[in-house]
Model the fold of this input.
Amino acid sequence: MESISNPQINVTKVSKAYKKLLVLQDVSFDAYPGEALALWGANGAGKTTLLKAILGLIDVKGQILVDGCDVRRQGKLARSYIGYVPQEFVFYDMRANETMEFYARLKRIGEARIPLLLEQLGLAGHAEKAVSALSGGLRQRLALAVALLADPPILVLDEPMANLDTRLRREYLGLLLGLRKQGKTILFASHRFEEVSYLANRALVLEIGQPAQMLSIAALRERCLPELELILWVADDNRPAALSCLLSEGFDAHMNGRGTVVVRVPEGRKMQPLQRLQACQIPVLDFDLEEVQIWN
Ligand code: ATP
Done:
């Protein structure tokens, strides 16, 4: 992301191996205020490992700076800029407001922000309830409220919506988007495209054995979504010209037995063959879209 401010998180050539398993390989990226960066990858791809490295909880090769502080040398200070929501937050046998007070004391910060945060996260009406009586969605919001106690500029979340249903996930995403708009830097692990496209402006793709790759959300969409076959009906006389018009632009096109022209395209590029034919002044009479079936 182009930005005139300094990066809030700066990761340079970070590598981590567990014995012979190389989990992170020369990972480098910057994250700026107001951006949400998704760590995208299947189970075991290294998302949690990278988040733990940024929190300074594991030793890695390379350098990680959080607001200019080296997480290895100034771990405590670097962590003070981060609000962390782990995959599974452990709650004690307390009410919601007591939980907030407990963590405020632990973090040695005042309790003044507690009512505001409970209000902001829709928890004010549940403050007196025991945590064990809260629904999963409310508990997850409470974990976020705890992470926000010190009003940190950075939020790090490890698959925060993994256990929420679709409606609760959307509510939670709305809260996170609001925080991003306030200028927080958000780093979150996910393997759900819906979450990533709603909240993030970029995604760092992690795959075991592959170098990490930073993608725009549009590029991630192309990578995730299945290929389509665009079936085009053009007049019989125009069909050879339509095929050569598409082939000359590099499209994967062929004629099929039903007298149609078939073009294989990634989901995100389905308009392009139509635009190309228009540029060649070949009218398209009708079209169909079919997902390409991969049988093996
Ligand atoms: P998930 O989505 O399942 O949480 P992840 O992308 O967060 O996965 P990591 O938890 O970072 O992946 O794990 C990456 C790989 O490193 C996995 O193969 C895991 O088994 C391995 N690994 C993680 N921690 C350790 C450890 N302390 N010792 C040995 N191997 C580990």
Q: What stands out?
A: Residues 18, 21, 23, 41, 43-49 surround adenosine-5'-triphosphate (CB under 6 Å). The mean pLDDT is 90. The longest helix spans residues 166-181.
